[in-house]
Request: fold
Amino acid sequence: MERALELAKKGTGKVNPNPLVGAVIVKNGEIIGEGYHECYGEAHAERNAVKNAKESVEDSTIYVTLEPCAHYGKTPPCVDLIIEKKFKKVVIGMLDPNELVAGKSIEKLKKNGIEVIVGIKEEECKKLNEIFIKYITSKSPFVILKSGMSLDGKIATYSGESKWITSKESREDAQNLRNRLNSIMVGVNTVIADDPELTCRINNDKKLIRIVVDTNLRIPLDSKVINNKDKLTIIATTLNSNENKKQALRDLGIKVIEVSEKNNKVNLKELLRKLGQEGIDSVLIEGGGTLNFSALEENIVDKVIFYIAPKILGGENSKSCIAGIGFSELNQAVNLKDISYRKIGEDLVVEGYIK
Reply:
């Protein structure tokens, strides 16, 4: 199962909104076939493992990180292939939370005389597919808020200089995040100040969807995210924003999503629902302090990842990682659980899930 998990990770950034899945076939104590879900719409891990097997898989055991599918989607049901090829045992990491599967495969396998074991390295399998689990059960994207900052929480000096606070190693690690998720979200202030491209440098072919939250449609029409047509850009705005600017953006091939206002800003919860309807399973928020606070205040964030550099910038006018009005009382603070720490270069990385 550990090997199956390793294989599953190879599909990172290529299978969204499908899950990451790996499969290993063992016969007479020897691995005879391996496979993983390589690309959305293509063969699942089990089919690739069978295809790659160096001998007959009859009477063998298949280890798979996620319950085999039992329904027709982009490909036929993998459970039927397992029965057809006369496997004797199936070892499963975790049940599929998709209501189209959800235990149906296990029931079918047992009815056909195949032994089934479930729950091997289950927590690791769930962690690997936390994005898929959230999306398939709620139809709402999994949201990670990521920020790079100084030790005192600053993301720029008081003069606006921000390149670079964190180390090269941290920035490369953050690119892995962009590869893992299928959209990146910033506020319009970030576009106006930095004019970023919002691409994935380690996988330039990745169709990373760029989302700009822009309540009053202040985005310049010559911005890179507007004029780089290789990637899809979505402008999230309100129903009451300027109709002429909306049309101008649409004329440039930009998708405009309109939502209601909340506290004179884009209603982020409504926006997430609409992004889910667009098939977006995950959002990486790389906004400035204003968007970051709004996202936390509206409780749309599932996980935070902070890259903290051993630098102190100071200054009450230096930009902070979390801005906005802030919380007035300590009992309103956003608390984290399942926290982990790691070191990258000189920086400390803190990860945690919203309680």
Residues 303 and 309 are 20 Å apart (CA to CA).
